[in-house]
Amino acid sequence: MIDKLIEKIQKTKAPIVVGLDPTLKFVPEHIKEAAFKELGETLEGAAEAIWQYNKGLVDAVCDLIPAVKPQAAMYEQFGVPGMEAFRKTVDYCQSKGLVVIGDVKRGDIGSTSEAYAVAHLGKVQIGGNSVSPFGEDFATVNPYLGSDGIQPFLKVCGEEKKGIFVLVKTSNPSSGEFQDRLVDGKALYELVGEQVARWGEGCMGEKGYSRVGAVVGATYPEQGKLLRRVMPKTFILVPGYGAQGGKGADLVHFFNEDGLGAIINSSRGIIAAYQQEQYARFGSLGYADAARAAVLDMKADIEGALQAR
Fold first, then answer.
1. Domain 2-308 is classified in which CATH homologous superfamily?
2. Does position 241 have pLDDT exceeding 90, yes or no?
3. d(Cα 26, Cα 77) in Å, to the nearest integer?
4. Which residues share a beta bridge with 265?
5. d(Cα 17, Cα 64) in Å, to the nearest integer?
6. Minimal CB count within 10 Å: which of 217, 251, 282, 292?
7. pLDDT number for residue 286
8. Euclidean distance between the first and final Cα of the chain, in Å?
9. Local confidence band at 244 (pLDDT 50, 70, 90 cut-offs)
10. Which DSSP symbol is given to 71?
11. CA 230, CA 157: separation in Å to the nearest integer?
């Protein structure tokens, strides 16, 4: 799957992943009104609004980007109907040829970790049937529990030819409370990065990158520069672009000399672009067109920064 992701990036010339992280405040009123009229102001109504909103976004940008990243919590908040919308979103994105990174941030050990891996990347055995519960192509994983939490994911990734992105240096302001702590003279995030590189050694794709990726925030470009050296064959998922303050000039060090090695995430900066002054001309009815314009602007920003380095 890492090879497919790279192929899609090369085809679109856009190392961009759109975060499908919907909240009802992002959903235009006309979509909510239609969903609530049919299903009421219920979990089912909210989930239907989220699904229709996502569908419009995906239709508008699927030819421009290689991947999407639905954040599971944004769907879980609407209970079982929300998770049904999550699954429909995954299926629809894949039907459009997009790689799907399930932003689930799972982290546990033993049979529990294995169950998480099966749920999101693998297949569960039900009698004589082998069934894919959610079916993402990648999943984000928290490494805090160590190798016991990662190995079940690696096993399923090997069986299904899928991948994971391990949290290494996250984009949030308080990430340094733990991640920047020194251990034997090195920051904890650097030690995690070294371990990610080791986990990936036996999981190499044909294009020279591992199925074990890393999450490193755009808001920490200097740390990104260090981690790029620590993990030369690791693909880096970079959150924090746009709404969290990251910009194209901050991103060049996440890429290798081959122009690959990183994929940049933007969520509300794209999916709620119509609510921004820059794209207000599209209005709520044109929310999907606003998202498309935001993707094109992001692509130009990243491309310009890479050409200037």
1. Aldolase class I (3.20.20.70)
2. no
3. 15
4. 17
5. 10
6. 282
7. 98
8. 29
9. low
10. B
11. 23
CA nearest neighbour of 138 among 43, 8, 281, 276 = 8
Identify which has the larger pLDDT, 250 or 282: 282
DSSP state of 239: -
Q: Phi and psi at residue 215, in whole multiples of 5°?
A: -105, 120
Is 105 one of the catalytic residues? yes
Which residues have a Cβ under 8 Å from the Cβ of 101 and sit 6 or more positions away? 17, 67, 68, 69, 136, 137, 138, 139, 140, 165, 237
Helices (H), 15-70: 29-39, 43-61
Give yes or no for a contact between 67 and 8, defined as CB atoms under 8 angstroms apart.
yes
| C-alpha separations of 197 from 33, 130, 142, 166 in Å | 48, 32, 15, 10
All structural domains of the chain with their residue ranges: 2-308
Read off the amino acid at residue 198.
R
Tell me the C-alpha distance between 55 and 95, whole Å: 12
pLDDT, tens only, 32-86: 999 999 999 999 999 999 999 999 999 999 999 999 999 999 999 999 999 999 9
Q: In whole angstroms, what is the distance from residue 81 CA to residue 220 CA?
A: 36
Can you give the three-state secondary structure of 113-155, one letter per residue? HHHHHHHHHCCEEECCEEECCCCCCEEEECCCCCHHHHHHHHH
Q: Is pLDDT above 60 for 245?
A: no
% of the chain residues with pLDDT over 90: 88
Q: Are strands 99-106 and 262-266 parallel, antiparallel or unpaired?
A: unpaired
Quick one: which of 277, 274, 279, 254 has its CA closest to 264?
A: 254
In angstroms, rounded to a whole number, what is the distance separating the alpha carbons of residues 118 and 105?
A: 14
Q: In this structure, what token pair is assigned to residue 104? A: 């689930």
What are the structure tokens assigned to 302, written together? 């990243």
* CA 101 – CA 211 distance, rounded (Å): 12
